[in-house]
From TrEMBL:
Keywords: DNA-binding, Transcription. This is Uncharacterized protein. PANTHER family: TATA-BOX BINDING PROTEIN (PTHR10126). It holds the Pfam family TBP.
Length: 204
């Protein structure tokens, strides 16, 4: 069985306050040792979490928080709860986590050999598989990868000559593995010097 996609980054969001209330980010930055705030560079307060997992929280004055850097959906939610606790201890207004949502799941894996992207591009244009949406982007003079989109999915697949594949834009871990399962055989047929196609089926 070939390599299952590794989750590289989960992006999630939540809302911490309601209504027109605003958070004084400068005051908060002065009270939280793990926080950095440079409003001339970026409008959000940055908080680094090192335990129980590594994550970065981006807090905006309207109470919206963005969490990046975790390796699973569960860890992303746990990280935001830790950010909420850190903020609660340094702020006077009431806050709580509302509307937790996964915005993006990014993963990667490698095919077992380099890919013939020009041949893959021609095949995708003239004999597209049933999962492929119309949009294909491949211009090696500007970007070394080929971008493919799936029908009925927000996921974007980026494949490189080296055989590396990135899946981004998914909303769940299950969507990552489902996407990998759909595309694998169609793309692996273009591994250079491959003697025969391989069939593989991943479960989430």
């Amino acid at each position: 069985m070939y390599q299952k996609a590794f989750l590289q980054n989960i992006v999630s969001t939540a809302q911490l306050i309601e209504g027109t209330n605003k958070i004084d980010l400068q005051s908060l930055a002065n009270k939280i040792s793990e926080a950095k705030y440079h409003p001339k560079r970026f409008s959000a307060l940055t908080i680094k979490l090192k335990y129980p997992m590594k994550a970065t929280g981006l807090l905006f004055s309207n109470g919206r928080i963005v969490c990046v850097g975790t390796k699973s959906v569960k860890d992303s939610e746990i990280a935001i709860r830790h950010f909420v606790q850190i903020i609660k201890e340094a702020i006077s207004i009431s806050i709580e986590m509302r509307g937790f949502r996964i915005q993006n799941v990014v993963s990667s894996f490698s095919f077992p050999g380099p890919l013939n992207l020009p041949a893959l591009y021609d095949s995708m244009r003239y004999a597209p598989p049933i999962w492929l949406a119309k949009h294909i982007s491949y211009n090696p003079e500007f970007f070394p990868g080929m971008c493919l989109r799936l029908k009925e999915s927000r996921a974007v697949i980026i494949v490189f000559t080296t055989g590396k594949c990135i899946i981004t834009g998914a909303k769940s871990e299950e969507e990552i593995y489902s996407t990998q399962n759909k595309i694998y055989n169609s793309i692996s047929a273009f591994i250079k010097n491959k003697s025969k196609n391989a069939c593989v089926n991943f479960s989430s």
